[in-house]
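Why does residue order matter? Because the sequence determines the fold. Keep that principle in mind as you read this record.
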Amino acid sequence: MQIDKSKPVLVTGATGFVAGWLVKKFLEEGITVHAAVRNPDKKEKVQHLDEIASKTSGSITYFKSDLLEPGSYAEAMEGCELVFHTASPFTNDFKDAQKELIDPAVNGTKNVLEQANKTDSVKRVVVTSSCAAIYGDAADCAQYPNNEITEEYWNTSSTITHNPYSLSKTLAEKEAWKIAGEQSRWDLVTINPSFVLGPFLNPKYTTSESFNIMKQMGDGTFKSGCPKMGVGVVDVRDLAVAHYQAGFVPEAEGRHIAHGHNSDFFSMSQTLAPKFGADYPIPKKIAPKWLIMLFGPMLNKALTRKFIRQNINHEFKANNTKSREKLGVNYRPLKETMEDTFQALVDAGTFKK
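Structure:
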């Protein structure tokens, strides 16, 4: 599918962490961005994007849109051949998983893609899914060949009570493929990132689980030990490239695992020690699983005993061959990602001296 770069490109949730870097990439390439956001009048939310636009050959226009309001993307999508749907909640701080995670993810995807059906100019939709739509727990990796997940698998272990965020991403992506399969005018490409880290573009960054974990690596939370929880890591800057390529590489198709490194929280924290260890309480040892089992559920409601059993001391492994070969993504070193993310948190005044 050939996309005309002189036409505007729609990005939903344009002020988000991942979307911001994608918008930056478009602006630097001289592309016109239709940025769909909940409240365009909140200047502190869009100021960083305006500043980037002022220094590039691209341009940006904001459109007021709501994930759960049918038809609210009509104006923003008008004239676009390429649509990027990045908006979806990522949090463990919720009261009602159905209402706060699953409904926005599934109905938001449905809303955007049904609008694509009504907008004749659209040729391709790129959806930001997640590795969470492929696996539920790190322990799941062990059941696959080479103990690693690939694009052909789907998450079957998450439920509304166990990893509801992962369930929301699974259901949303399945809904996207269902809608795409019922028509033939536009094609669908999905990007499935692992745990996304990297510097944020907006100094007044929105808190997310990614930053919460990084913060805990430097604020003393893990002083007595850091969990050896298996995760994958991808740099947000590399992820932006994966999205860009998914939109403009004519042959791009299907799902793509966007993932730089197989790792775990303790190993990740150790990459910070040489640069930041003298000034911040970077973890020095692994927290024993029995201790996490004992105190984890009291400290964080997401740390249920089942979650701890299935993720602590289990290896996460994902195969990123497709994104490297088909989209040409080169993933930067984990140390670079970790240091740049931590430095961004330091610069934002996250850690109290």
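The chain has a mean pLDDT of 93.
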